[in-house]
Amino acid sequence: MGQNQNQPSRFLSRRRSELAKIHIGAKQLVGDDDDAYRDMLEAVTGKRSAAKLDEDGRREVLEHLVACGAKFERPARTRARTARAPMPSDADDPGPGGPVIRGEAPRFRPRPRPRPELVPRLREIDALSINHPGGRKPRGWAEAILQKMARSGHRTPLEWATAGQLQEVAQAIRIDIRRWERRRGSEGGAA
Fold first, then answer.
1. Of the candidates 38, 74, 44, which has an alpha carbon nearest to the alpha carbon of residue 56?
2. 3-state DSSP assignment of residue 68
3. Are 143 and 126 a contacting pair, CB within 8 Å?
4. Cα–Cα distance between 52 and 62 in angstroms, integer?
5. End-to-end CA distance of the chain
């Protein structure tokens, strides 16, 4: 009984995968030309929509696309995201997620290790963020400050910043703390 319940799910998953491959292959061969794509579907299967194809029709289209030169390979970067074997240095300090064991997928991406000269500045930023009068601020908040200062579209870990950038982030947090304390002082005096 449990097998029959999973069958429609596997069928839909396979169908979606095949339809995605059809669209990827067609884009490789005909680009954005929708008419050429639908003409190819009609020539191979007699239908102008991939969604209306049955399993045999989808297989025929995929075989045709491969014969015409479409390639269905995963990008190289997804293959490189495998768990690594523990390094000798990991035995001393396994990091925040614990040691990564071969064959086990990591639970989350561990933070990069900072250069030794940046550690005091990072600790200062963490202390300022934790003791912020507006409540404890997460590390991502400080990273967002760095992102805004660098005018970057991507958030980068604090560990990748230069000493000067970390100094600017710490100064920005101090300014924000002073603003919070001023607001509290003006609210307390008005009451």
1. 44
2. coil
3. no
4. 15
5. 69
Query: What tokens does 90 get?
Result: 């990991």
CA 176 from chain center: how many Å? 30
The alpha carbon torsion through 34, 38, 44, 49 (nearest 10 deg) reads 120
Is the pLDDT score of 184 beyond 50? yes
Residue 106 has a pLDDT of 54
pLDDT tens digits, one per residue of 162-182: 999 999 999 999 999 999 999
Q: Could you give the CA distance from residue 172 to residue 179 in angstroms, rounded to a whole number? A: 11
d(CA 76, CA 73): 9
Ordered by start, the domain boundaries in the chain are 11-67, 116-190
pTM of the model: 0.42
Q: Are 129 and 139 in contact (CB under 8 A)?
A: yes
What φ, ψ does residue 135 adopt, rounded to 5°?
Answer: 110, 160
Dump the DSSP string for 15-37: HHHHHHHHHHHHHHHHTT-HHHH
What are the E-state strand segments in the chain? none
Look up residue 146 and give its two tokens: 């760095």
Tokens of 2: 């449990």
Convert the pLDDT of each residue in 104-153 to its tens digit.
555 566 777 888 999 999 999 999 999 998 888 888 899 999 999 888 77
Query: How far, in Å, CA of 114 to CA of 96, rounded?
Result: 14
| Residue pair 181/128 in contact by the 8 Å Cβ criterion | no
